[in-house]
Amino acid sequence: MSLDVPTAVLDEAARGEIDDATFVGVVRESLPYAWQVVSAAADDLAARPGSAFGEHAVPPPSEAERGQLLRALASNAIRGALERHFGVALAFQNCHRIAAFAPDAVGSAVHREFVSSRAQVLNQTPELRDC
């Protein structure tokens, strides 16, 4: 299961749409490690004015944290909510390299390089094979 959804939120969703703030709260509580990683990448971007992206490049401490990150970034709904909340476009190479791009940097040379097959191949190491 990707998220621990409180009964009140399940009831709200059954009645109709839920707002981003509610959904983001569920994500933050359910996937705290993933939240921390995305937040760190967004903070890194904010701390470097003029930079195209910020990143988080530390391997998860355990399989549980790795699972949180994979669930967050593999879900269109979760990833989209995180991007809207933090005002970034996320890029994901593997379990230890996540970038938060400024929205206007998407499609730039730096962004295209980060999401390229070449960059993916160069970012592989034997110890991260199961990442």
What does this structure look like?
With 131 residues, this protein is mainly alpha-helical. It has one domain. The chain is 54% helix and 11% strand. The chain is built from seven helices and three strands. The chain has helices spanning 7-15, 20-30, 32-47, 63-74, 76-86, 109-114, 117-122, and strands at residues 53-56, 89-94, 97-101. A three-stranded antiparallel beta sheet has the order 1-3-2. A hairpin with a 2-residue loop joins β2 (89-94) and β3 (97-101). α2 crosses α5 (76-86) and α3 packs across α4. The protein is globular and about 45 Å long. It starts with 6 loop residues before the first helix and ends in a 9-residue tail after the last helix.
Cα shape = globular
Q: What's the order of the H and E elements?
A: HHHEHHEEHH
Q: Supply the number of helical segments.
A: 7
Domain unit count: 1
Which structural class matches the secondary elements? mainly alpha
Residue share in helix: 40-55%
Distance between the termini: 19 Å
Q: How many DSSP E strands?
A: 3
Strand content: 5-15%
Biggest beta sheet attributes? 3 strands, antiparallel
Question: What key attributes describe this structure?
Answer:
single chain, mainly alpha
